[in-house]
Amino acid sequence: MLIALIPEFVAPAAPGVIGYDEATEPSTDLLDRCGFFVPHYLGPEPNSHLMARMPNLERAQLLTAGFEAALPFLPPSVLLSNAVGVHDAATAELAVG
Length: 97
Known about the structure:
alpha/beta, 15% helix, globular
């Protein structure tokens, strides 16, 4: 059975998925079973590199509008979605003050 791995801070909003601690890598077992992955975007370095170690990955959802940094790690058959437009209202509000 495939699983979904998402950052711990998002997990409470998505019952039934497995949250992972952004500070540590998920186990090999979890990476092998992962079909849906949400890389974290906070901290010194995103963990998109984990996608290259997920043999059953079908879909990845980025939490950022930019996606170029994830492409080198994306297996060819994986559907990648980004968060273009998600932050527009908050960014505009921040700019206006």
